[in-house]
Predict the structure.
Amino acid sequence: MKGSITTFGMPTEIISGPGAHNRIPEFLVPGKNTLLVTDKGLADSDIVLKVTSVLNGAGFPVKVASDITPNPDEETVNRLTAYLKENSIFQVVALGGGSPLDAAKAACAMVTNEGPLEDYQWNNKPFTKPPLLLIAVPTTAGTGSEVTGVAVITSRNAKKGIKKREIFPEIAVIDPELMVSLPGFLTATTGMDALTHAVEAYVGKNTHPITDSLAVSAIRLIGGNLRKVVENGSDLQARENMAMASTLAGIAMDQAGLGIVHSLSGPVCSFMHLAHGLANAVLLPFGMEYNLSARYKRFAVIAELLGGDTGGMKEEDAAKLSLKLVHRLLDDIGLSGELEKVRQAFKERKDLHVFGESAADMFLIRNNPRPASAEECTELFSIIAGG
Ligand SMILES: [Fe+2]
């Protein structure tokens, strides 16, 4: 350690394991209005039914709000905030991927604090009152949103995080039983998002011994389990390991920061309407290659964590092995073809310099171990297109 003062704070209580969703009622206040927030895709699913059955059975007659759009915007949060106020909702269970969780995190704080949202998002206005009680229940092993103090909301044509202590959910319920029905493709892309969180937190500028240990555990778990869950979604032990990896990686990236991969994926998602996890999955090995020379030692560790045999190798060669292992992982989980599609799409675009400028403008890039200008980001997009 450098000897400087550092901070680590994660106030969310984590309840995890198969069947953990049965314990949600323990954390709710009896007799108070309860809302389940989810998205349209899940609204009629068995997953929502499982959770509402548990809540209803425990004496919480729950209403369901499912009009949460992917990449939720200000309007979605304002609509949810108004609904919470009009129905005198006291407590919220947010169920799903990052979109319903982030929308609920923002709305729960906006109910008790005077608006507008953009003051908190863009002008860093502090929340002065505690948010509504929020229980976050992820159904993917990817975003880590259940343990982060940030809500990413689309505003002014950008995805912008509201990062404050009050945004952390009070409780995270992580239940692999709610993840077994996630299709293979989504399992693969969300799992790669989690890997990207762990790698970027581990090689970034703002590393910390606590986040290092979380990131290392996450990378090892993903290396050992992502192939298994993509091949057999019903493998509950592998699902549980991936769920825990996602949570560990989520805490690590929230506390330590991200880097060039998430910065490059910002414009790719906005301009090409690619899903967040998929964009990160295909960009990860290229971001790693860009950063390699700044962190040989740490990339050599990543190679070992992903199951590589680095015995007798020079550090630089061991670091390079981590790239091969990520490409092999993409291949094994069926995403190599997606990389080829992205390459092709890049080749056909004449505006990669706009992507590069936008990536270099991202706040996240400040934590990258190697500086990256707009020209360097554009060059990286061109390298991907040319490969
Ligand atoms: Fe991510």
Notes: The domain at 184-386 is CATH 1.20.1090.10 (Dehydroquinate synthase-like, alpha domain). Residues 88 and 365 are 41 Å apart (CA to CA). The mean pLDDT is 96. Residues 193, 196-197, 262, 276, 280 surround fe (ii) ion (CB under 6 Å).
